[in-house]
């Protein structure tokens, strides 16, 4: 059975890194963007990181420009934006594709391990996102791919994906799930 540790990716500085370096950690893998309505989630992600990193949480961000070109900058620009505007200190990886045929193998693995379960219709933000995507990108709704920026995947200390959080789920709402794994 494969785990996230079987993969590698380029860091935001362009260095290849094996995700096996995170063995024994709880991981939150997030596809990010700097010019999205959800970009303020960086603040909540950084708060989670600061609160739980000493207990074994690692957050890793993968910027992507696949959603309305909301991550147009270079890797250096993305890194500077995240540090200056949100104080991001968790690891960022190079801009990459997270959906479709060109999706990075990490995201192919994540979306296979944690299939899309739909948008929570009881949550107004989630319901709006589902309606927006059903109208604007209906062909995206029928598969397990990442639907938008700030889709989050929670991975246990054994490298297995245990939960997927769709973009409208704010970082603070994941605390109980993270604490259960720490």
Strand order of the largest sheet: 4-3-5-6
Compute the number of helices: 5
Based on CA atoms alone, the radius of gyration comes out at: 15 Å
Fourth-level CATH superfamily = Glutaredoxin
Distance between the termini: 22 Å
Low-confidence parts: none
Q: What's the CATH topology label?
A: Glutaredoxin
Structural class by sheet pairing and helices? alpha+beta
Number of domains: 1
The number of distinct β-strands equals 6
Looking at the overall shape, the CATH architecture is 3-Layer(aba) Sandwich
Order of helices and strands: EEEHEHHHEEH
Query: How much beta, percentage-wise?
Result: 15-25%
Note the main sheet: 4 strands, mixed
Protein name: Glutathione peroxidase
Active site: 36
InterPro entries: Glutathione_peroxidase, GPX_AS, GPX_CS, Thioredoxin-like_sf, Thioredoxin_domain
Family: Belongs to the glutathione peroxidase family.
Q: Can you describe what's shown?
A:
- 29% of the residues lie in helices and 16% in strands.
- The strands form 2 sheets. Strands 4-3-5-6 form a 4-stranded mixed β-sheet, sandwiched between helices. Strands 1-2 form a two-stranded antiparallel sheet.
- It contains 5 helices and 6 strands; from the N terminus they run E-E-E-H-E-H-H-H-E-E-H.
- The protein starts with 7 loop residues before the first strand and ends with a helix.
- A hairpin with a 5-residue loop joins strand 1 and strand 2 (16-18).
- With 182 residues, the chain is of the alpha+beta class.
- The chain has one domain (4-181): Glutaredoxin (3-Layer(aba) Sandwich).
- The radius of gyration is 15 Å and the shape is globular.
- The protein has helices at 41-52, 75-86, 105-113, 124-136, 175-181, and strands spanning 8-10, 16-18, 26-32, 57-63, 152-155, 161-165.
- Belongs to the glutathione peroxidase family.
- Residues 1-182 form the Thioredoxin domain.
- InterPro entries: Glutathione_peroxidase, GPX_AS, GPX_CS, Thioredoxin-like_sf, Thioredoxin_domain.
- This is Glutathione peroxidase.
- Keywords: Oxidoreductase, Peroxidase.
